[in-house]
Specification:
By secondary structure, the chain is α/β, with parallel strands linked by helices. The chain is built from nine helices and six strands, in the order H-H-H-E-H-E-H-H-E-E-H-E-H-E-H.
Length: 231
C-alpha cells in the first residue's frame, strides 16, 4: 500500500524520502503491517501531515509513539477516534484545559479539529506493533521526524513546540528560539504519574499568548470532536 503524504509536506521532505534509510524504513514497516497487527491503520500513518499542511503549522505537539491498543491510534498524537474511551494522557490534557470529563456530555478524544487549526499532532515514531510500545523505534522513524522538525525550524517562524516527555524533548536541539524565532515548552509526558499535578498545565495559555504576540491566530483548544466546546 502506498502511503499518501500531503503535497506541501511531500515537497519539503522529498530529499529525505530519497534517503536510503527512508526506503528501508518503508519496506520494513510495510512488511510488519503485512505480517503483524500494527497501528495506526496504514492510510492514517501520515494523518497529522495530511490534516495540517506545512505552511499552516502554528503548533507542534510532540508525543512518543502511537497508542498500541485496538481502535485507538488515528495518526494524531494523543488523539483517539470519536466514541473511544479517553486514555490517561488525554484526560491529563483536558484537565489542564478545564474540560469537564464527567456528566452526560463527555468530551470526544478526537483532536482532528486541533489539527485543522494548525496543530501538528506528531509522534516521534509514527507506527507501532499491537501491545508493544516502542516496537517500531528501531525502524528509524526518529530520523524522519527529526527532519520534519528541522524543516519547520528553518523555513518557518513563530511556531510553538510542545515537547512532552524525555524522548520528545530530544527534538529541542533542532529548534531555534533566539530572538523569539520559535517557542519551546517542555513537560513530563501527560501519561506519567505526576504527584502535585502535571507540569504542563500552562502550556496552552503560554502558546496562545506567544501566537497573539506574533500576530498569529490563536488556537481554540476547547474545540474537540464534533462539538464546539466542553466546559
Amino acid at each position: 500500500m502506498e502511503w499518501i503524504l500531503e503535497k506541501s509536506w511531500r515537497e519539503k521532505l522529498k530529499d529525505v524520502m530519497d534517503e536510503p534509510y527512508y526506503r528501508e524504513l518503508v519496506d520494513k514497516v510495510q512488511e510488519e503491517y503485512e505480517n503483524k497487527t500494527c497501528y495506526p491503520p496504514e492510510d492514517k500513518i501520515f494523518n497529522a501531515f495530511n490534516l495540517c499542511p506545512f505552511d499552516k503549522v502554528k503548533v507542534v505537539i510532540m508525543g512518543q509513539d502511537p497508542y498500541f491498543n485496538p481502535g485507538q491510534a488515528m495518526g494524531l498524537s494523543f488523539s483517539v477516534p470519536e466514541g473511544v474511551q479517553l486514555p490517561p494522557s488525554l484526560k491529563t490534557l483536558y484537565r489542564a484545559l478545564g474540560i469537564n470529563l464527567n456528566g452526560i456530555n463527555r468530551p470526544s478524544g478526537d483532536l482532528t479539529r486541533w489539527a485543522e487549526q494548525g496543530v501538528l499532532l506528531l509522534n516521534t515514531v509514527l507506527t507501532v506493533r499491537e501491545k508493544q510500545a516502542n516496537s517500531h523505534r528501531k525502524y528509524k522513524w526518529r530520523l524522519f521526524t527529526d527532519a520534519v522538525v528541522s524543516a519547520l525550524n528553518e523555513e518557518r517562524e513563530h511556531i510553538v513546540f510542545m515537547l512532552w516527555g524525555r524522548i520528545a524533548q530530544r527534538k529541542e536541539r533542532f529548534i531555534r528560539t533566539d530572538n523569539g524565532r520559535h517557542m519551546v515548552l517542555k513537560a513530563v509526558h501527560p501519561a506519567a504519574r505526576c504527584y502535585g499535578g502535571w507540569d504542563g498545565n500552562d502550556h496552552f495559555t503560554c502558546c496562545n499568548e506567544y501566537l497573539k504576540k506574533n500576530g498569529v491566530e490563536r488556537i481554540n483548544w476547547k474545540i474537540v470532536g464534533n462539538r464546539e466546546t466542553y466546559l
